[in-house]
Amino acid sequence: MSQPIDRSKSLEQLEGQRWPDPPEDTTSMVKNVHELRRRPIGTLEPHELARLIGQNVGLPWLLPLAVEILRDTAPDQAAGGFYDGDLLYAVVTVSPEVWADVPELARDLKTAVTMLTDLSRYVKQEVEEFLASLPEGI
Question: Residue 109, Cβ neighbours under 10 Å: how many?
Answer without folding.
Answer: 27
